[in-house]
Amino acid sequence: MLNGSDNNILVTGGAGFLGSHICEALVNKGEQVTCMDNFSTGNIENILHLKNLKEFSLKTQDVEKEIFLTSDLIFNMACPASPIAYQKNPISTFQTAVIGAMNVLQLALRNKARVFQASTSEVYGDAKVHPQPEDYWGNVNPIGIRACYDEGKRCAETLFFDYKKQHSVDIRIGRIFNTYGPRMQINDGRVVSNFIVQALNNDPITIYGSGEQTRSFCYVDDLVEGILKFTYQEKEFGPVNIGNPKEITVLELADIICVLTGSRSKIQFKSLPQDDPVRRKPDISKIMDLIQWQPKVSLEDGLKETISYFKNSMK
Ligand code: UDP
Which domains, and CATH codes, for the chain? Predict the structure, then answer.
């Protein structure tokens, strides 16, 4: 069943940045998609183009509430994910990650459904192993400002594994690294969106700390392809890293964005937030061996698409 089309699929957080791209890819595959969102960080504009399709339906609900649906497959994408958004209400972020995981797992158990968990590179914290392989346990401050998200997502992984052990739930866990592309929120505070908006407005580019810290940015289309291929395969439940291993510094990112936008922005240094990871880069050998997937879109091409999306949204 799962490898055909016409499955009933639930996407929690389906109106968010990643969730909406997943809904779209599933509809294009011929699946029946229910998008569930409480619109805390999701945006109705992200799914307007899908709303009237017969393969698509929308349910406005918080993932913290028990879910009553019939599903063959669930993608649990619901959680604020940018540091600014998830730190606004840390208790709520933790609840979304943990109670949300319980609710999708209960639904999967009742429906004998498969369930994909959007986990995160944040489970590695400020990593002491570089690049980060899946068997690295991480270095997370349990009482810091990022803990609500990091520990929430770590706890969700624990729950997924325990539901598999105790109840044989058919799980998939993907650890998603920094991703960018159209439908990112303009004001979500992430580095790519901040720099593009600042560059387009010729405002100062805000570099936190020295700008020598690194990230590895994956274009959303590549990421969604990886998530779907991983979720539909039968051999491995994860966790697997999903991301682009090309690592750059924050300063280099600022340069590229200024060149691509033709901006006159100057650099402005600001203080580094607490517990900001110094280096981040996924080791993706596990997923490459498993499904022969690797990112195809270069940073320059992906940024061009993203910049044109932001130009249109800022009109
Ligand atoms: N950052 C920055 N300027 C900004 C926003 C972010 O220098 O305006 C830095 C941030 O300190 C971090 C990196 O860019 O080192 C990525 O931050 P982001 O919030 O996008 O996500 P993270 O990878 O930290 O979860």
Answer: 8-181+217-245+279-296 (3.40.50.720)
